[in-house]
């Protein structure tokens, strides 16, 4: 892993994402090496020749100045990196940003695949408007190793959700990305039942080289699903997601926590929170 220090102008940048107003990305690059990752497009801006997942830029900010008002705004950590990648244990960049934001009136949203967030329970409990999500799309750690070789295990993530929730922190499971025919929605919901305040769902979107890589993987490991994947990702067939959306809606009636569907990003209201 190539680790470098880079200069950045400011902690927060305006977001084009539908459910956040600002994003903070304390690092450039990521260490999880997710085979489906969409964020590899960031190499166009980082100047790296290395493969995505083999480098990490640690940001040093020229200014820690924040926008004049963050009241009613949502700040996301992070959009194109994992704010709690393993190097956060050494550099504390995400913790420093959270310390800077803790007395603002912003809604702070943290999304990670890491259990390192447990380190900051004391700080997280002091942030008045906070929600903390962990991404997970399988209970099969073998599949997790195939797709996310650098990320923490399934069990570590489940335990982190339980620990954070028991500490009084608002938590949610982000079932993402959902792999058609492979991700077991009901099993994941049941695994976190009682340990989260919300469950969100996002479909697998494949772009660029990741599309053919995943299709090759499906052909090798799950050939029985290959034609279904081709229909979705080469022909644009949306019927699988439409059916799954209906199944999730039906499943939601069996659980007390609210569900949120992020299948159709373009339809999500700008700045809207998941529980609106």
Describe the structure.
By secondary structure, this protein is α/β, with parallel strands linked by helices. The chain has ten helices and eleven strands. The protein is globular and about 50 Å long. The protein folds into two domains: 1-112, no CATH class; 134-264. Helix 8 (208-221) packs antiparallel against helix 9. An eight-stranded mixed sheet has the order 2-3-6-7-8-9-10-11, with helices on one face.
- The shape is globular
Query: Based on DSSP secondary structure assignment, what is the total number of beta strands?
Result: 11
* Helix residue percentage: 25-40%
What's the main sheet like?
A: 8 strands, mixed
Across the major sheet, the strand order is: 2-3-6-7-8-9-10-11
Proportion of strand residues? 15-25%
Structural class: alpha/beta
Write down the domain tally. 2
- Rg calc: 18 Å
Mean pLDDT, nearest integer? 91
Distance between the termini: 40 Å
- Total count of helical runs of at least 4 residues: 10
Order of SSEs: EEEEHEEHHEHEHHEHEHHHE
Low-confidence stretches: 266-276
Helices and strands, with pairings:
Elements: E1 2-10, E2 13-14, E3 22-23, E4 27-29, H1 43-46, E5 55-63, E6 74-77, H2 88-91, H3 93-101, E7 107-112, H4 121-124, E8 130-136, H5 141-147, H6 154-166, E9 171-178, H7 185-192, E10 198-203, H8 208-221, H9 226-233, H10 239-252, E11 259-261
Parallel strand pairs: 1-5, 3-6, 6-7, 7-8, 8-9, 9-10, 10-11
Antiparallel strand pairs: 2-3, 4-5
Helix pairs in contact: 8-9
